[in-house]
Design a protein that fits this description.
With about 450 residues, the protein is an alpha/beta fold. The protein folds into 3 domains: about 80 residues, Rossmann fold (3-Layer(aba) Sandwich); about 210 residues, 3-Layer(aba) Sandwich (UDP-N-acetylmuramoyl-L-alanine:D-glutamate ligase), CATH 3.40.1190.10; about 130 residues, Protein-Tyrosine Phosphatase, Chain A (Alpha-Beta Complex). Helices cover about 35% and strands about 25% of the residues. The protein has 17 helices and 20 strands. It has a 6-stranded parallel beta sheet, covered by helices on one side. A 6-stranded mixed beta sheet has the order 15-16-20-17-18-19. Helix 6 crosses helix 12 and helix 16 crosses helix 17. It starts with a strand and ends with a helix.
Amino acid sequence: MNKRAVILGAAESGVGAAILARKQGFDVFVSDLGTIKDKYRTELIERHFEFEEGRHSEDQILNADLVIKSPGIPEKAPMIVKLKEKGIPVISEIEFAGRYSSAKKICITGSNGKTTTTLLIYHMLEKAGYHVGLAGNVGQSMAWQVAENDFEYYVIELSSFQLDGMYAFKADIAILLNITPDHLDRYNYEMRNYIDSKFRITQNQTADDVFIYCADDPVVNLEMSERRLAAKCIPFGLGKPPAEGAGVTDNKIIINWGQNIFTMSIIDIALQGSHNTYNSMAAGISGMVVNIRNEKIRESLADFKGVEHRLERFLKVHGIEFINDSKATNINSTWYALESMSQPTVWIVGGIDKGNDYSQLYELVKTKVKAIVCLGIDNSKILEAFRTLGIDMVETQSMEDAVRSAYFLAKNGETVLLSPACASFDLFENYEDRGQQFKLAVREL
């Protein structure tokens, strides 16, 4: 008899997992507690999958041999608790996909910079002519690609939620960019749990594999001094280049790998700012590990276009520059955004707070920000945090009002920055929706 696979969540990763599970001979049932988006419902209907939405039917789920869950469903969700009590394995879509692919896997995690670094590495491999897929938090579901178009390489962006559901999966190249407090609501507000989750990217690695990490990140550095990892560990940072790894000398990135030395002026890199120098170094090391020629790495770092909703310089209206950084959903991302501002800035901030400590931003706000526009259903914590700084503050509850208020507060030659430092779910579907609404409101000024 065929084994039964139940998929919880019917978006990109869930539908992809269903397609691969059926291909591998499982009986498949898909269940989504919410409403399934039209494009995914159409896929399920056209492919004749059995599915339900708006509920989780216990009689259909608790008889599974294997459950593949969406990363958005927390471990504490009642159905997950019941499945675990029954001893039914619950895994992530990436874990499942990894069982059926022999491709080389380059995996990227970190609190910030994941998407940029992932897309940069993918751009580099594609430019070098590699047969490569893009998966995880970006691109198409890995399971879907493994089922219908398996690649020789995958570049995979992994959130801590995805890593939590991964057990036997192994990254050939693992990259850890940084660890700063984020999503602590999912980790019992324990930083240790979140750190352990991020380091799962190194699990199952052997001496033949590579772990690339930021030596300038204090949390990562402390962990590295206390862990014995099997993989070859390659550091990068803004200091002197190590014998193997990346560093900076005289405004040049220098990467040492085996007998090969790569150098490139920081000025020639498409993505500016110290955080992007880190992302470019991590990408450059990966390129060297998979034997991409120096010229191709250099070209890729020079012509990469960046990521939508991440410090996206969008439009100038009457000399005021509008920057969309909707992807900044935590304090650290917003810190980088504010740090890179060179003109007086009107800062749009707010949403669902994930336990933010705004005091980390005080110094930057004092030097860079001329006014704050709060955008959220509940702005009390932000108002409380910055009230004493003597900066103009305005409360808004729609993107249209926020953009209009910011426009009136800014002058020719100044900047309006949307960098919310919070999740978007109070007023928007997700950070993309928030960024699109920002751009629409700016166009309508």
